[in-house]
């Protein structure tokens, strides 16, 4: 089959990306489905895989991809043949310990990611456990692939972890990335006031068009004072961040007393310096959040199928132009999702 592969570890990743035509077609194992890919989407994880993840022995050339939609073509042993022909959307986070500890919040060690620990959706076919795909009917596969992982991650951050309620004020850092745009999408759906930050004015302008109430240009200075001004000195109820070290201090200073800081990543580094006095005095809650389970996936995908939420698509490439897709993601100039159209 055709597949987009990273030939070798490196940074930047895009020079090592190529389309091959001789990748072995996967076969579904017991409990799995084989999906003919219609669309797949890039995530930051694809770049980390291409650079080489610490503690994971990736065998290059490697075909990543943790977002994908397509038609089930074959099923493995123990899977109902009624799946064949259905259009499905993948949740790439395969929970390893869910049956043994159903009450426990899964950590990174409990999850095996399709596209990281095993080949992913960047090919004409991919395999996944039947329990990790959802029937999405005739939903547009481009829209579905753009929606999946980012909206699942954002849903767990805001709904499951931070306990978002209508009318809250939410701060989303680094608007433009897939998760940040999904956070804006979900917060706006629930009637929240959203403030965004970015290093680019055009991204702030785009976010305002999508419903953000305010935007703050991040020029490297302490923008928490601007957040206080915009909220009448009150602060925000929730800060949803994936930037990490570079903005951590501003995030904490932007919170209302009793507010929640929730993070799903740290692209600028995890060794942030925090303010413990502010933490206990203002009774701030710190929360980590990773991926999401199938119950959460079903919940958020309901809004995609009903048309109440739509992802933002930055650009679409054909497999032959995969290098351009990776270049776009690495540039940081995207707003929304970068996709591959396999149709």
Task: Tell me what the structure shows.
The protein has 343 residues and is α/β, with parallel strands linked by helices. It folds into two domains: 3-138 and 312-341, Quinone Oxidoreductase, Chain A, domain 1 (Alpha-Beta Complex); 152-288, 3-Layer(aba) Sandwich (Rossmann fold), CATH 3.40.50.720. Helix content is 27%, strand content 26%. It contains nine helices and 17 strands. The protein has helices at 44-51, 141-161, 178-189, 201-209, 224-230, 248-253, 276-281, 294-305, 322-331, and strands at 3-6, 17-20, 32-41, 67-75, 87-90, 93-95, 111-113, 125-129, 133-135, 169-172, 193-198, 214-217, 236-241, 255-263, 285-288, 313-317, 337-341. Strands 3, 4, 5, 8, 9, 16 and 17 form a seven-stranded mixed β-sheet that branches. The chain has a six-stranded parallel β-sheet with strand order 12-11-10-13-14-15, sandwiched between helices. Strands 1-2 form a two-stranded antiparallel ribbon. It is globular. 48% of the residues are buried.
User: Whole-number average pLDDT?
Assistant: 94
In N-to-C order, the SSE pattern is EEEHEEEEEEHEHEHEHEHEHEHEHE
Helical residues, percent: 25-40%
Structural class: alpha/beta
- The CATH C-level name of the largest domain is Alpha Beta
Just name the CATH architecture of the largest domain: Alpha-Beta Complex
Question: Quick one: biggest sheet?
Answer: 7 strands, mixed
Termini separation comes to 14 Å
* DSSP summary: helix tally: 9
Count of folded domains: 2
CATH fold description of the largest domain: Quinone Oxidoreductase, Chain A, domain 1
- State the shape: globular
| Count of strand segments | 17
């Amino acid at each position: 089959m055709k597949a987009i592969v990273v030939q070798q570890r490196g940074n930047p990743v895009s020079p090592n990306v190529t389309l091959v035509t001789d990748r072995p077609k996967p076969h579904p194992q017991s409990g799995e489905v084989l999906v003919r890919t219609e669309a797949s989407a890039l995530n930051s994880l694809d770049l980390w895989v291409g650079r080489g993840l610490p503690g994971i022995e990736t065998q290059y050339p490697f075909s990543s991809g943790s977002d994908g939609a397509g038609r089930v073509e074959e099923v493995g042993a123990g899977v109902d043949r009624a799946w064949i022909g259905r259009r499905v959307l993948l949740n790439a986070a395969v929970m390893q310990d869910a049956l043994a500890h159903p009450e426990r919040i899964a950590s990174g060690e409990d999850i095996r990611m399709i596209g990281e620990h095993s080949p992913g959706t960047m090919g004409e076919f991919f395999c996944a456990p039947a329990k990790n795909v959802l029937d999405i009917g005739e939903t547009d596969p481009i829209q579905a692939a753009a929606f999946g992982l980012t909206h699942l991650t954002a849903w767990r951050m805001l709904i499951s972890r931070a306990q978002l309620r209508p009318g809250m004020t939410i701060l989303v850092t680094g608007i433009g990335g897939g998760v940040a745009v999904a956070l804006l999408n979900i917060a706006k759906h629930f009637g929240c006031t959203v403030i965004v930050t970015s290093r680019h004015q055009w991204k702030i302008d785009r976010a305002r068009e999508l419903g953000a109430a305010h935007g703050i240009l991040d020029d490297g200075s302490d923008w928490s004072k601007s957040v206080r001004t915009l909220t009448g000195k009150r602060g925000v109820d929730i800060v949803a961040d994936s930037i990490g070290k570079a903005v951590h201090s501003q995030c904490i200073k932007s919170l209302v007393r009793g507010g929640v800081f929730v993070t799903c990543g740290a692209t600028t580094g995890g060794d942030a310096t925090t303010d413990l006095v502010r933490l206990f005095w203002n009774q701030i809650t710190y929360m980590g959040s990773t991926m999401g389970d199938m119950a959460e996936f079903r919940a958020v995908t309901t809004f995609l199928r009903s048309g109440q939420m739509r992802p933002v698509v930055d650009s679409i490439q054909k497999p032959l132009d995969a290098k351009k897709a990776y270049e776009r993601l690495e540039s940081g100039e995207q707003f929304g999702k970068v996709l591959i159209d396999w149709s």
